[in-house]
Amino acid sequence: MPHDELLDLARDIALRAGELAALRRREGVEVAASKSSPVDIVTEADRETEALIRGLLADARPNDGFLGEESGSGSSSSGLTWVVDPIDGTVNFLYGLPHYAVSIAVVEGEPDPLTWTALAGAVVNPAIGEIFTATAGGGAFLGEQPIRVAAPVALSQALIATGFAYDSAMRGRQGELVARLLPLVRDIRRQGTASLDLCFVASSRYNAYFERTLSPWDHAAGALIAREAGATVKGRADAAPDRDFILAAHPDVAAALERTLDRLAL
Ligand code: LIP
Fold first, then answer.
1. Gap between the terminal Cα atoms of the chain
2. Do 139 and 164 have their domain in common?
3. Are residues 60 and 100 in the same domain?
4. Which residues, 6 or more positions from 96, have their beta carbon under 8 angstroms from its beta carbon?
5. Residues with CB under 6 A from ligand 1
6. What is the mean predicted confidence (pLDDT) over 218-246?
7. How many domains does the chain have?
8. Which residue among 218, 219, 247 has the greatest number of ligand 1 atoms within 8 angstroms of its CB, and so is best to mutate?
């Protein structure tokens, strides 16, 4: 498969970037700046890790584009763009929680999640040594093991993950929704790293995941991995996922959850 070469590059760079992030974590992490709100923070490790990834990609594939959380975008003459979150789960990383990830995807077409075609993706959690990967049409893997979305269950038996925005007013509305949803499902998990949340749907660790206000780099790789594992990954109605909404689950669970979220006035 031609995408295997792209995946090999994504995997190798994600593993090297993960080693750097884990090293910086062991050395100690401090907030370098805040972004959209006082709790939307960036560390020097975020910036350094993205610089490493961007440089390695430029060396290997100089004609490809780049879209990263910390250093913005670079144009593509090849039709491919690398979409990168150098440390997804930055708050977990800051606090030393072993649940953060390097997320690298390569997409074809405009770097717009509503229109791009993801070709390959890798999500590495260096804190526990797990790597999730996928290529378009090639299946999804945890390490060397194929992974699949969980078989459908009733919503009342579903373990559902979600996340919250950095904007306090939005977080309040999201919390109210979760309070209404919680009695209707098995349980809720909020672990703070969208790319891993999507990989956990892909590997049957969650029955479903939904969130609002994600950036393209949060879900570019994880959405491909979840889809290749048999999950539906969507935005509202039949749109592709975007900043407004993303939902990932077995198709039957996705339909039931979306109806319930609509009823609870998501
Ligand atoms: C995070 C996401 C997570 C969300 C957080 C934050 P970051 O990305 O992965 O799902 O709930 O609020 O957006 O900022 O750590 O790259």
1. 40
2. no
3. yes
4. 25, 29
5. 69, 85, 88-90, 163-164, 166, 192-194, 211, 218
6. 96
7. 2
8. 218
